Amino acid sequence: MKKAISLLLTLVLAAGSFALPTFAAEDKIQVTEDISVSADYDWTRFKGQNVSLNVYNWGLYISDGSDESVDVISAFEELTGIKVNYTTFDTNESMYAKLKGGGANYDLIFPSDYMIGKMMNEGMLLPLNKENIPNLANIGPEYLDKVYDPGNVYSVPYTWGTVGITYNKEMVDEADLAQSWELLWNPKYAGQILQFNISRDCFAIALKIMGRSMNPSSTQDIEDALVKLQEQKPLVQAYVMDEVFDKMEGGEAAIAPYFAGDGLTMTADNPNLGMFIPPEGTIQYVDAMCIPASSQNPEAAEMFINYLCEVDVALQNALFIQYTSPVSAVRELLPPELAESELMYPDPEIIARSEYMTVLPDDVNSAMDMAWSELKSFDDQGNQWLVPVFLLVAIAMTVFNVWRRRARKKRRQMY
Fold first, then answer.
1. What is the pLDDT averaged over residues 108-131?
2. Alpha-carbon distance 60 to 77, whole Å?
């Protein structure tokens, strides 16, 4: 369709007898060569009003014009006249802390499922006016009405995904892949294993290995998972988030659990890398669009949500970030290597054995925070004796040097 439109426009320009059309079709507005949007939505009602949106999203999580991608933010600004101030965060917890502390005002945020439930329960989100988001109808029903937000009162799905295990084919024996999650505890790969720098994901993986729900239901679950993670700690090279890209693509590490969308990116950038979804089940998640209670422009934020649910926009985002789009029509527009990818669209039987993260009871959440701190300092405890030793050595060397200089001075005075 878009190729036909482009050809038509070329012929019109060559003829020089007609003005450029505003509409790509009767029901579409052509914004850029790659993006058209619904014509029956008032996209221009904020033009000339100096409206700006403060958007807070995950890093590398939107088609931004880099690497020959389409800049969907610039297209939105051109379409609506709304200025988008776009900043990023690296974990749900850092995003939550920033909003909870009141240190910044945002109009649109992209938390994950369990964090949506937490923020909703704490009154940190505004209910959505769905009349301003008619493109909610583009979202597949399998992504809606989840336990973290029944009825999608506060959220609209932006991406969906799972956690898989990335591995270096030259560093990991293929036979060991059958160990699935246990591969992350294999001492053969000591010092070559990366782990999430997020408490929820770490504890979820440990609990899965132990045959329990990935959502801890008691403080005992936390205590037991901590022991399992402490067993793994000596094997772990580093706890990472976006650092995983450089470490895995550069051959600095052999194994890493990470998000399947990013796994697609890493395996495309380095053919020596592979990724699989553990067959016994994994974490599945939705990152969704929500409006903070402190938003100054909720209606404009709803317009941006509606825009991101346009098929063309969702397609460009899926092509760039390679995460599964909840917009149903996107899959049939993707190239076969993505549309048929088991990382982007996993086996339904695996998904049936997978879990969404839920909001934890306060006592369990507090226990996890404490256990996470204990885990991160676990290997430091064995090395604490080095600090005073190094200090004593430094003092001894200083005293010795002072004594030696005085001895030399005394000998010179003797002669």
1. 97
2. 19
- On whether the CB atoms of residues 78 and 31 are closer than 8 A, the answer is yes
Query: What is the structure's pLDDT at 104?
Result: 86
- What is the model's pLDDT at position 389? 37
Residues 368, 366: Cα–Cα separation, whole Å:
5
DSSP 295-327: -S-HHHHHHHHHHHTSHHHHHHHHHHH-PBPSB
- C-beta separation of 320 from 177 below 8 A: no
The residue type found at 259 is F
For 130-168, how does the pLDDT look when each residue is reduced to its tens digit (9 = 90+)?
999 999 999 999 999 999 999 999 999 999 999 999 999
Q: Cα(267)–Cα(276) distance, rounded to whole angstroms?
A: 11
Distance CA 265, CA 275 (A): 11
pLDDT at 107 over 80: yes
Using DSSP's 3-state secondary structure scheme, residue 337 falls into: helix
Computed over its alpha carbons, how large is the radius of gyration of the chain? Answer: 27
User: Which residues are 83's β-sheet partners?
Assistant: 52
Helices marked H in 174-297 = 199-209, 219-232, 243-249, 260-269
